Amino acid sequence: MFGDLFEEDYSSVSNNHYGKGKKLKTKALEPPAPREFTNLSGIRNQGGTCYLNSLLQTLHFTPEFREALFSLGPEELGSLEDKDKPDAKVRIIPLQLQRLFAQLLLLDQDAASTTDLTDSFGWTSNEEDFLDLTVAVKNVSGLEDALWNMYVEEEVFDCDNLYHCGTCDRLVKAAKSAKLRKLPPFLTVSLLRFNFDFVKCERYKETSCYTFPLRINLKPFCEQSELDNLEYMYDLFSVIIHKGGCYGGHYHVYIKDVDHLGNWQFPEGKSNLDVNLKDQKEEAIDDPLMILKAILLQEESNLIPVDQLGQKLLKKIGISWNKKYRKQYGPLRKFLQLHSQIFLLSSDESTVRLLKDYSLQAESDFQRNDQQVFKTLTSKSPGLNDRPSCPHWFDINDSKVQPIKEKAIEQQFQGKESAYMLFYRKSQLQRPPEARANPRYKVPCHLLNEMDAANIELQIKRAECDSTNNNFELHLHLGPHYRFFNGALHPVVSQTESVWDLTFDKRKTLGDLRQSIFQLLEFWEGDMVLSVAKFVPAGLHIYQTLDGDDLMLCEVDIADGEDIFVWNGVEVGGIQIPTGGDCEPLLLNVLSLTPSGEGGECQQLIESPRVFPSNAQLGTVFSALAIPEGVVVLISNTESIGEESWTTVPKEDLKKTFREQGLRNGSSILIQDSSSDNSLLTKQGKWITGVNDTDWLQVKNLCQLESEEEQVKVSATVNTVVFDIRIKAIKELKLMKELAENSCLRPIDRNGKLLCPVLDSYTLKEAGLKMGSSLGLCPGKAPTSSQLFLFFAVGSDVQPGTEMEIIVEETTSVRDCLKVMLEKSGLSGDTWHLRKMDWCYEAGEPLCEEDATLKELMISSGDALLLTEGKLPPLGFLKVPVWWYQPRIPSHPWKSRQDQASCTFSQGGDWRAASTQGAPSDGHAEGSLLFLGDVDISEDAALVELKSQAMTLPSFSEFCIPSPAFLRAWTVDSKRPGRLLRFHHQQLREYKLGRRTEICLEPLQKEENLGPQDMLLRTQMRLPGKRAYTLPMDMVWDTARGSTAGSLRQRVADFYSLPVEKTEIAKYFPEKFEWLPVSSWNQQITKRKKKKKQDNLQGAPYYLKDGDTIGVKNLLVEDDDDFSTVRDDIAREKQKQLALGKKSQEALHVQSSDVASGAETPARPRGPEASLSIHVGSFR
User: Fold this and answer.
1) What are the helix (H) ranges across 964-1009?
2) How many angstroms separate the Cα of 22 from the Cα of each of 502, 512, 988?
3) In this structure, are strands 696-701 and 711-715 parallel, antiparallel, or unpaired?
4) How far apart are CA 75 and CA 88, in angstroms?
């Protein structure tokens, strides 16, 4: 019944990653989450199984059914271990249902899977444990009113409507009525919510108010009424609810927990702070005073360490203080100090408590004000579970289980989300006391043992997963084992003895890490400072000191495998250590010539590695090498040393730092006397003393500030840092110095469009900037390395240069990015989604994973996104536009009334005609497309289900199609049928349709069953002497024995009853209006040559596929090579005229640009160019 429709997929990627360089971890190996506070388990939705899940939960919460199922043993059902044995009799369905109910009762997971159960479906028993009553909803006020109309009111036959009595054989007065003869223990009531409007010819859902009681007395509707009233009383215990319309929706269920198996608690008790804080409105969570007071009121003596206060805050509201409040209120300790009238910090500021007077006042205020968000945190009233008279209701929505109050049922009387099925149980059915709150009651021993073992295995897996996800490796470098020389830190003895590896929980604080290291290093004395260090070619360098012991490690910029240097924060081995990225040591190759020897011997080139701080001036190389100033310095940033790779440094630039000169690890410095005749770097006998004429960039002033010049040229090399160019441009433009802190450089393309800002730390080579290009000096800071600069636009008709701009973090989710873009665009609503824009300014694939980060989706700076109206279908679902395809085939079946009168259609949609009207003999096998509507369907659904849903569209009512088997499905490519979807029961996922695929349906005269090797072709017979064809006819060609020209010619000859040698065929190319004859000429093969491979019509130049048009000519009556028609000649002539018109327009455009060369003429907008890779196969 369900086949392999429900394949579970856990390949989603977690968004929780901490620190840069951290690898994303997939959830594929993670165990299921434990049960939530309700202590009940849901059922995972496998794709369209929400109704099945609701029914299964109803059966599970019917204790009598559940215990009767558990009472069946191996003698009645057999064993699952024997299911593969041929002689064994195993009833798989009830056995799988037993296992599912045992998992729902005992297995500690938030949701169970029904895969094993659905795979076993196929039962044929007609026995039912429930009696179904189907009642009307339309024009009825409620359930009791409907039952009254069905079982109490009588239909009277009198006057002209007498009843014929079979006994007395005459017309008599009579009364007709129906009564309930026997009442079951459980009663199922189906509400007829879905009806059909015969006037509009469409389905609709009845959403009017329809009440139903929590307890109902069926005595007035029964045939026998002499029993006690309690025998007729029924209590409501389950309501299946449908949310949506008649063409789609979702089911969930309200269930009464008869045995009190779940934890039916609302956030009203003092012990329910976790649920309370997470379920409150955002306005309450935004008040840190209220949250901190509530947490302190939970502690004994209202006293707690400040570090633990931050951890408890994270645990309660799901977000840390720094991420939620630090920007507005500052650090946590500072906030506590500013509110000294409420909080009292200890002398060392390590602990905090509420002031005594305020604690009493706050507790009384909380108890007195029922509307306070955290009112019940200090309440002494008993919990809801202590009130046995209060029924326990839960809303079970697939995997999610939430407690609800009985009043919530009244909300399901009417509306788009309303009751669909009602389940009642006899009031006299009583449960034994030992079954109350006992999920192990009457569960078979073998299932108890299986669930206990599964729970132990889950605990082990969760512990392993928790350790894997929350622990990371740190490499501790101990300061006393290092020494500082040659500009960096190096181990005294060996790297192995100087580094300790530590595995630590990143949920703990930096103070906990420091304390753990103290315990490990018993020899340590004095202060301990932890700093982030990294290996560079020169050695180990310290970059950042870690501050804030109350911060958790996941909030600190620490990655997995980070190097941590442990020291006193000042010196190592008596030497003060420079720290930070500014003074990063650079390992450079310094080349110099030895002094001239006697007799004018050649000088020798000496190369020596040297380490310099990157923030030191270039001139310090003279003092380091003891070389007098006044010599020429040349630098090279390439690995190969040659004339063209060197750049001379002017004397005034010797005061610049190594970083400002663009030097990095591995760069080379050459020092030589300029007066020497033995220079190693000469060019035509002259020194290279200046930069090349093209070594400059043009910077335009776009800061909307007045300056003497609008643009300047800044000299640079490929290794010049962007920051230096920006500062130099500000100086030469004589702009305010404040712009140095709030400006950026943005490349300008040839169309005048501003591109993504360039990071200040990049060199021109790293930024991809070419010499001579134009940059714009713009206000605003450039994005950091962890931020993205994005363009975005609204709608589908986007012109270049009209996009808006935004800067977001690369860890921002698609949902949050969409919200920010909507706010900046002044739009509202939740019916929008994002799509990537390609280089042609057209909408690409949508960003479906709303919880994924931009980095995970490989969105980079400079990308353009499109705000598109319309809500995306959920993951695993497709929104497929469906068209009706009307081919030009004689005596075509199932035509609409309008189509029988004319080939055009004007109501319900627009026909897209692909061929001109006229004589049928002058057309080809093309037809028209009519848009029917969109179908929302799961990717796991079969093709036949797509056809069935398309037949329910309102526009489809114009066509009389007996069944989906009389429809042929194609993809739509370039407004005509493209790929044939041939297998009815194949899943849509296997067709790889994608989210932009459109489908067209073609009517058939009879059912067809095409094989995988069958090719469907449209054949047209040539009319002799008229340059025209008959209307096309469908022909199926079996290509199993080869798709050769001879095979096709034989099939066509048989189809038209013609001799093969007198049959000529050609393929039609509608885009070019050309016919290509299919030749069957065979090359003569000599003995020396290998056998030639037979021609394949599915390859070049024919590329034959389903739906192609094949022209057929009978050589007995017409012996020429012409396959074209008059229509083809006219169309080709029009194409030539259009091509000539475009060339003439381009020539006029060139002339006008030459005439107006002195004026600035805006260029025609065009999309940015993108690289194109063409992979060509090997030819022999």
Assistant:
1) 988-991
2) 17, 22, 36
3) antiparallel
4) 12
DSSP letter, residue 386: G
CB 567 within 8 A of CB 535: no
Query: DSSP state, 247?
Result: T
d(CA 1028, CA 728): 75
129 — pLDDT class (breaks 50, 70, 90): very low
Pick from 769, 764, 808, 801: nearest CA to 786: 808
Q: Which residues pair with 483 in a beta bridge?
A: 490
Distances, alpha carbon 180 to alpha carbons 118, 149, 254, 961, in Å: 35, 13, 27, 41
DSSP-derived 3-state class of residue 979: strand
Residues in contact with 182: Cβ distance below 8 Å, sequence separation at least 6, in sequence order: none
657: helix, coil or strand? strand
To the nearest 10 degrees (0 to 180), the angle between helices 92-106 and 63-70 is 120
What are the structure tokens assigned to 301, written together?
Answer: 């003596």
At 274, list the tokens. 């976790």
- 765 is written with which tokens? 């080579």
Where does residue 284 rank: exposed (0-12), middle (13-18), buried (19+ CB within 10 A)?
Answer: middle
Helix (H) or strand (E) holding 104: helix 92-106
Residue 783 has pLDDT above 80, yes or no: yes
| Residues pairing with 606 in the sheet | 592
CA–CA distance, 1112 with 1018 (Å, rounded to integer): 10
636-659 residues labelled b (16+ CB within 10 A) or e (exposed): bbeeebeeeebbbbeeeebebbbb
Backbone φ and ψ for 1148, nearest 5 degrees, come out as -60, -35
Q: Is 670 helix (H, G, I), strand (E, B) or coil?
A: strand
For the ranges 107-121, 470-484, 1150-1164, the lowest mean pLDDT is seen at 1150-1164
SS3 letters across 578-625 = CCCCCCCEEEEEEEEECCCCCCCCCCCEEEEEEEEECCCECCHHHHHH
User: Using the 8-state DSSP alphabet, how is residue 205 labeled?
Assistant: E
Distance CA 310, CA 291 (A): 11
C-alpha 89: how far from its chain's center? 46
pLDDT tens-digit map of 867-924: 888 777 777 788 889 999 888 655 444 555 444 433 333 333 444 433 333 334 455 5
Rounded CA gap, 1013 and 991, in Å?
16
Do the bridges between strand 131-136 and strand 155-157 make them parallel or antiparallel, or are there none, so unpaired?
unpaired
What is the CA 589 to chain-centroid distance, rounded? 49
CA distance 1111 to 1027: 12
Q: What is the DSSP letter of 551?
A: S
What is the rounded distance in angstroms from the CA atom of residue 621 to the CA atom of residue 627?
8
Catalytically annotated residues = 50, 250
For the CA atoms of 402, 405, 410, 411, the dihedral, rounded to the nearest 10 degrees, stands at -40
How far is Cα of residue 1116 from the mean position of the Cα atoms in its chain? 62
| Higher pLDDT, residue 188 or 115 | 188
Tens-place pLDDT, residues 984-1034: 888 888 887 877 789 999 999 888 888 888 999 999 999 988 889 998 999
151 neighbors 221 (Cβ within 8 angstroms)? yes
Range ranked top by mean pLDDT from 324-333, 379-388, 595-604:
324-333
- Determine contact, residues 959/884, Cβ cutoff 8 Å: yes
- Residue-wise pLDDT tens digits, 243-291: 988 888 899 999 999 999 998 887 544 334 444 444 444 555 677 888 8
Please give the single-letter amino acid code of residue 495. Q
Token look-up 């859902």 returns 205
Contacts of 1107 (CB under 8 A, 6+ apart): 925, 970, 977, 978, 980, 1016, 1017, 1018
